[in-house]
Amino acid sequence: MTDYLIPILPIQQFKNGFTTCEHLKSDRITLVQLEDELLGVHRVSSRTTHNIVTPPLCRSPSPAIPPPKKAWEAFYPEGSINPSAELPGGFGFYLSGPSSFAQQLEEGANEVLVSYRMMLSDDWEWVRGGKLPGFFGGIGPFAYNCTGGRQEDRCQCFNLRPMWRPKGVGELYTYLPLVESNSEILKKVPPQSIQDPNYGFSVGRGAFNWVKAVGNWIAVACRIKLNAIGCSDGEVQLWVDGEPVITVHGLLLRQSNQSIIKGMHFQTFFGGHTQEWASPKDQKAWFADVTGVVL
């Protein structure tokens, strides 16, 4: 594997995995098409679309990684917020990966990395913030809908999604088991971390910026390592374009071996849940080169 693909796969030691990136070649990685059925896409938000399109030309093509030929397109209409709002925007679904990868997750893969490339429309406006695809997991059906201010059964699920804030400020937005040790660890993540008593935890706000994604493809990669039962030794790590931007150790992500990594929560929208978060105009984003490996 060549060095220029490190942004898509920043950890070179892995067991096996899958990718939709035709340039990422390895005998341990299966190449699959960007299709719902092949990628284990399920629980799709019914009021939004994630059409496969030929993405527009980017502002500054990378001389290293060729742009993807196909991408999922997210559409954020003027005035839209999350996919369940009166005027929905973006899209949302869960992705477990091809059957061989999904089976390893169900069998309790302890450490996994997922990544994708994204591009925001050339005239993008940030407003207050919005969500981007990340991880989800937990015990059976409790793993789903761990977000949106959920308080019940929070020790039976976890969810981690990157997020943008005003002017493209980046962070990792987390829903983890509500235990004091997690709060104490997350509060210390620089440069700023904020706990919302009714929703999730903004982690590492300002550790990076999404501005480069406006009109250009950038790679987003996230690693999660589950804790041993009875120990707070879970880990989370986020890379943006191959640069490690947030790393957190000492987490309790689960309290039972039945709580497992389920795959990707492939969701994006403006919000927040109130209208001041809404997109100020029709906007689009594109997502491609979806990749997952078991470490």
TrEMBL record:
PANTHER family: DISAGGREGATASE RELATED REPEAT PROTEIN, PTHR40124. One of its GO terms (molecular function) is lyase activity. It comes from Macrolepiota fuliginosa MF-IS2. Residues 69-290 form the Polysaccharide lyase domain. Coiled coil: none annotated. InterPro entries: Polysacc_lyase_14. The keyword Lyase applies. This is Polysaccharide lyase family 14 protein. It holds the Pfam family Polysacc_lyase_14. Keywords: Lyase.
